[in-house]
User: Fold these one by one.
Assistant:
Number 1:
Amino acid sequence: MPAISIDRTLRRVSIDARDPAFYRDPLAAYAEIHAQCPAFFWEERQQWYFAGYDLVNALLRDRRFGRQILHVATRDELGLPLPKPHLKDFDALEAHSLLELEPPAHTRLRTLVNRAFVSRQIEQLRPDIEQLSHALIDSFADDGEVELLKSFAETLPVTIIARMLGIPVEAAPDLLDWSHRMVRMYVFNPSYETELDANQASADFADYLRGIIAEKCRTPADDLLTHMITSEKDGERLSEAELVSTTALLLNAGHEATVHQIGNAVKTILQSGLPAKDLFATETATALTVEECLRFAAPLHIFQRYALSDIELDEGVTLRKGDKIGLLLGAANVDPKKFTGPNAFRPTRDEGANVSFGAGLHFCIGAPLARLELNLALPILFQRLPNMRLKNEPEVKDAFHFHGLERLDLVW
Ligand code: HEM
């Protein structure tokens, strides 16, 4: 159990997000938080956080909050520091990222990419995902052991999203490298070295994408990137900067969380001791297993929002315009008011949706794709390697936001 101190009356919680006992198993701390104060001021972070399922779900949809604040106030008004010059290229990519925008800019971009991600479109990828899963397993099935993240979990989603966009699959190692270096920014207080490295990765990634976009303009193809280049909304096309940002976001978001979720799911299932043949007996059983893995071992535990005005919440929390709040998706998924015995992995439970893909305006556009990948890849993996087991206790990454494994060594 991590060192956690809770002042129930003042609703103040102190917990070190870098404490291995916390990030390895945040569910134990979440249980304490749910029992004592699911809306709390996190001392180390100096802001309010919310853990309750209903409230997290409602705040994700609440239009008084946004992922962006500079569309309603200036830095001066809010006392925000100036942008850091050494993050220029990183910020340039974020500036047009769907994830960081609010309407109307968000609506325009989201409408343009949305069509490619609706379930009907995504369903067509089924044979591709199945075939790729088998091909990857073929490459190590006779070895008797594998490090699953490198040899399977990382390759599958990046290959699928690169193919969808029309980016050469040979670029996958570079895409993974740029993406890993950029997402290190999404931890609490990244170091100067992390910032410099993320900026360099952003510059190289953007350069690469500008080259690909120029090529697609010369030679259009039947892919998502060409669609984004040629689509118009209200007579307007996406600018080059918007195209670069959106493509980078889709490539990064398109694999980072899915990689961790494949790893988390395999570890959870193996440690549960439940027979895989039952968990994946039918499509319905598989879907329930996948959703329970998403609930119990979610890959993304926290997202932030800005208060877009002064707000008084029913919980008696007063927020000033520009204040940030933290929404604990991983904690909402184990709220005992919503899920019975929430800290147990029970794939037969059917108690409603988890919030691992968020909710509202920014609800994960890739959810149908991620779900299809998980619903196909996991049963194939367990059917092909029925004797696989953990070689050792996998190390969890030291990054509270991204709950994933350093590596996942399996033997059979
Ligand atoms: C298990 C896998 C995944 C999980 C758990 C996940 C989770 C999330 C969550 C929680 C958000 C909302 C963030 C917020 O409200 O601030 C989000 C947004 C987003 N995700 Fe995913 N995601 C996954 C896979 C994917 C995939 C495969 C793609 C790509 C194709 C993708 C693309 C996006 C994009 C573009 C957004 C921004 C949407 C917007 O702001 O309108 N995600 N994701």
Note: Residues 4-411 form a domain with the Cytochrome p450 fold (CATH 1.10.630.10).
Number 2:
Amino acid sequence: MLVKRTYTRRRAGALLGAGLAALFLSGAPRAGDAPRTHKIDIQKFKFAPAALTIKAGDSVEWTNHDIAPHTATHEEGSWDTGTLSRGESAALTFETPGTYSYFCAFHPQMTGTLTVEA
Ligand SMILES: [Cu+2]
């Protein structure tokens, strides 16, 4: 599976719990560091940082600080945070190494790159 999605919206407590449980169950011991969650802020119509490198198994959490709604949407359609209103966050867990370009579905000039290392 490419990604596991965990929403951290206020009303998604049950879903969040399920996502964390899934992470827990699939968390085979790794030789290196424990999986991390990396944060990307969406602010002033930019992803910050716009380029991020993570390890397979890590999660990325996007948080929208703008009044306008935004998404983080993979260019090739493999993953999507869905619409994030102001103050909302969504986290995705990346299992498959690769370089992923993404954009905001509402503002395609907003772009970012995520690199997942083995
Ligand atoms: Cu946007």
Note: Strands lie at 3-7, 37-43, 46-48, 51-55, 59-64, 73-74, 89-94, 98-103, 111-117.
